[in-house]
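Section 4.2 – Deliverable D4.2 (structural model, holo form)

The reporting period included a commitment to supply a predicted holo structure for the target in complex with adenosine-5'-diphosphate. Inputs used:
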Amino acid sequence: MTDRDSNKTERPTDASAVIGAIEAGGTKFVCGIGTPDGDITDRISFPTAQPEETLRRVVDYFADKNVQAIGIGSFGPIDLRSGSETYGFVTTTPKPGWSGFDFLGTLRRSFDVPCGWDTDVNAAAYGEAIWGAAQGLEDCVYYTVGTGVGVGVYAGGRLLHGLLHPEGGHVPVRRHPNDGFAGRCPYHGDCLEGMASGPAIQDRWGVPGHELAPDHPAWEIEAHYIAESVATTILLLSPRKIILGGGVMQQKHLLPLIRRRVAELVNGYVAAPELAEGLDDYLVAPGLGTESGLKGALALGIRALEPRSEY
Ligand code: ADP
Ligand code: ZN
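Output (structure tokens):
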């Protein structure tokens, strides 16, 4: 038994409990309710507008649901530092109106229940660890490659926080030799997100990714940038599983290209059988399909009901 286990008292979550879940994305919000087993029983989705209006819709949704806890996986950056005066706030986002918004406090003024609060990608990593592709593992890393690139880290049974939280979408990556695209990150130009997000694909080629044929050179370049970052993650964190989600990863031919390039970059240096067998079971699509974020938020809500939920 670990220290953490011994601090838990016997209070299993009531199997009939109703738990709220919020997947708060920069483009859209998904709210749902679910069971402690991970079944989502109802949901609603709406575009992310100004914060007050958006939270009004969230509060309206949960008003008659009688939830016993709520889990939130939010776009960010967000403040997760316990004890911070701005804990629960969205911090430096360029998204109009949201910088400095007290997300968690606004919710708590309407619902006096335990709340779990983390980044959207940490929530997705957690969902995958509890019910998805990394079920039963003590660590995994979850990438979303979509409007932005985000990376969530579950390590040693905990979601990784620190100064703030990992911002793996913005790591520097080596440039592909045939790529003259300047990059579009407002902070870093040609960081991973600047080179590999869905909008970066569209800017580079003049059409969105879903209009590019599988044999278009775009995909080899896309795989290059994602593989740069995935190889770094393997070497830096040694996670037991890496999961790639998000809209761009709907291109099913992309994952094998990334696996091949990751294998070249690691080049046999990390002597783990998971990496020697073609990475097919190591570098994978989400086990929860497009539900990793919402189910992860549900799992955060369930965890918030535990007597000691400071993970
Ligand atoms: P978000 O990141 O906003 O939560 P998504 O993960 O769906 O949402 O990402 C949207 C981005 O992914 C857009 O830039 C879009 O062009 C791109 N995208 C979505 N679906 C596909 C697809 N099937 N093929 C390639 N790109 C896609
Ligand atoms: Zn950046």
